[in-house]
């Protein structure tokens, strides 16, 4: 009797708009976030933070704070920093040179909010009172608040970097001869402000050390539970099997929770020194002041065009602020700004050069599409170029955008585009918008004294980049004795609904009813190793892992069912959580009946026949990159008296390959788009000239709300990628494409006034000032 696995039946759940399995729990308030975790004898931590951007620490007196009833301990750098064994992150690897990152400030504080001491008390209220009693003697020093002034500031942030340059890179040098001779050359300085992810749930940890067992358990708000476990083991010099990370629900991450930061290190180190579990929950002011910064780039971009509007060359030269203590992820991805600058266009020659510069501000961290500046600067420049050449920006893009029949295509920096057709998403967005109809409407509005505008933005981005530890993902699928199916994956779900998509994929892989499938994620004690949620990798990588494990379990089901039904394995079909014979549908057995026999009556099967219904498998991606692309289109109206911008329509046409769940894809695109809108018009993390933060509350840091965002319209192009199922990532695209689309719409509206916004955000004050300066 052969037991070969029959062909998999057509997908029943993947591709459908299935309701999210986690929503009932979350919408009824039954989620479990870090602050919901309670442990016996739990203590609470609060940080003493520097009020100065740059100062020497002359002395720290904890006497009064320790005398406060309820205070259990106070730790300074002298207590914690020397206990660090290793502190490298897998995203960079142990052999890549890294910038300084001490747990607590040692000798010198380097930004307002720099953690100086850690107070542990019976509750958070006492801990915060004690923080005010810690007397730190500071000797203020000059601070470098604006990274653009670094060469002339006379301030050195880190002694190891006397010029404040953390790193840099240059590609091919620009072809200055070509730029000098081209019919049209457009050059602009584009400045992107500092803004941040602002997850609903701030950072947080509960760390419990069992000295008797020599084991540490951590409940964390993280995107990468397995990497957090590995980092903690390295930090403390513990065997990895002695560390367990449990991640339940996480209220947003957006890159900020990919790698552990300095406060996380402090809690891990201090947990072994206190008599109970130690909880730290970041408050909103700390999050805005100390959790890091994002974006913040200043650069000059150039493009050369021939007489027909074809791009001849592109060049970008930029500087990015990395703050005082950057995490390694965004520093490494800064190079991507230069590498990706040609974008989804036919660009014969490209060049780039960049530096990353320290400043006395919070350190750079990852944020949804950390290379977004390449799209922002390029797309803003294209619109400026089109107006200068007397063309519509749509026509200029149409001339230069890459088509599917040109794939594979290597951009001039060597990036290998394939399985994409940027022209398709572009034309779909133009059609949905009714471009010609809008231009007529715009002319009529201008005649009435109203300023309305249209902005486009096109991009291409790598998803599921299969490099280093990101190149593989594990999955365990187990059919329980009841016949229900549990699928175990690393997780890291922070709103991107891996729970739902994994259930859909597993149900299809096994021919099961979706209500029979459940998922367990985020617990390193029971889930296989995975790299978590980052780099738009979750969809393609978990699909591959589920396919590997699902194939093995499917073969097990077929083998056992074939014996139970007395038919050849090639006759078995799996559907509706049932194995049945194609030739005789009367012969069938449910998964529940089969699992019962396998678990409770295994002797019914022949000797030597394995009765397990479980497999753990590891998917290793053979495709280095799954390229996704999209076009964003935005219309707006600008009140030229107040500078207020009202968005009137917003369209996204995106190719992420086949969609596992269109609801989830559109939710991801929508969430990123709203963040991009905030970055265009509202959000700004500001410092004064002395390095004091000016936007550490929501009174000063403005976020987009439902009133600022029009209904989003979606178009989908489905070009399969190179991996399992053809799936591509979709997590970052909205945040990448939205900001330039909005800025281009604003600039299009203001073009009759000779106004162009190239310094973000396009706040009312900025717009009014530009209009005033443009008037004769």
Automatic annotation (TrEMBL):
GO terms for molecular function: iron ion binding; oxidoreductase activity. It comes from the Bacteria. Keywords: Molybdenum, Oxidoreductase. InterPro entries: Ald_Oxase/Xan_DH_a/b, Ald_Oxase/Xan_DH_a/b_sf, Ald_Oxase/xanthine_DH-like, AldOxase/xan_DH_MoCoBD1, AldOxase/xan_DH_MoCoBD2, AldOxase/xan_DH_Mopterin-bd_sf. Pfam families: Ald_Xan_dh_C, MoCoBD_1, MoCoBD_2. The keyword Cytoplasm does not apply. Gene3D superfamilies: Aldehyde oxidase/xanthine dehydrogenase, a/b hammerhead, Aldehyde oxidase/xanthine dehydrogenase, molybdopterin binding domain. This is Xanthine dehydrogenase. It comes from Mycolicibacterium arabiense.
